[in-house]
Amino acid sequence: MNTLRRWYSPYAHARLWKQSAHLLADLVVGVALFSYVVTMLSTSFGLAVTLLGLPLLAITLVTGRWIGAMERGRVRALLGVSLPGWPALSPVGSWWQRMVQRFKDTPGWKGLAYGVVMLPLGVVTFTVTVVIWSVAWSMALYPLFGWALPYDEGTWQPSGSLQALIWTGSF
How wide is the angle at C-alpha 37 spanned by C-alphas 96 and 68, nearest 5°? Predict the structure, then answer.
């Protein structure tokens, strides 16, 4: 009984489920952020020849800071880690000086870069998480359904863990 408790006890901890939820949510967050960032940057740069593009780019850079704040909140909620925020920009000068200040805002650009990188990162973390959970559950439940799998007496049959890996398609 101690062995079973040791094997299955990690499934009882909320930390494991929160970490898995964070990794699985990376795909959804990545798609949303990538779509937003690419759309806003494309529109901003496309309209840069007019006077609408520069203010739109400044607004996009402000939302880059919001992306960072949202991700810090998600990390705090699901992983229990508190990350420091960036200092706020001081609103000085005219609207033109504030807009130029936004263009030089490193945290805003980093937030937008994170939004672009989050799509491929989200695909990878989602895929790896689903594969690991599929293998873990198929191996954990194999004793319950292994008897129902086809068995041919005339062929070589692997034994033990190798047999479980091959029959569950988790190799």
Answer: 80
CB 47 within 8 A of CB 40: no
CA–CA separation, 154 vs 120, rounded Å? 46
Can you read off the two tokens belonging to residue 11?
Answer: 């499934």
Name residues whose C-beta falls within 8 Å of residue 34's C-beta, 6 or more positions apart in sequence. 115, 116, 118, 119
Q: How many CA atoms lie within 13 A of 126 on its CB side?
A: 14
Q: Is 123 in contact with 27 (CB distance < 8 Å)?
A: yes
Closest CA relative to residue 116, chosen from 171, 41, 20, 12? 41
Question: Tokens for 6?
Answer: 């040791």
| Phi and psi, residue 87, nearest 5° | -65, 145
Give the C-alpha separation, 8 to 51, whole Å.
Answer: 61
Report the amino acid identity of residue 83: L
pLDDT by 10s per residue, the chain, length 171 = 677 777 777 777 888 889 999 999 999 999 999 999 999 999 999 998 888 888 898 889 889 999 999 999 999 999 999 988 888 777 777 777 777 777 788 888 999 999 999 999 999 999 999 999 898 888 878 778 777 777 666 565 555 555 556 555 554
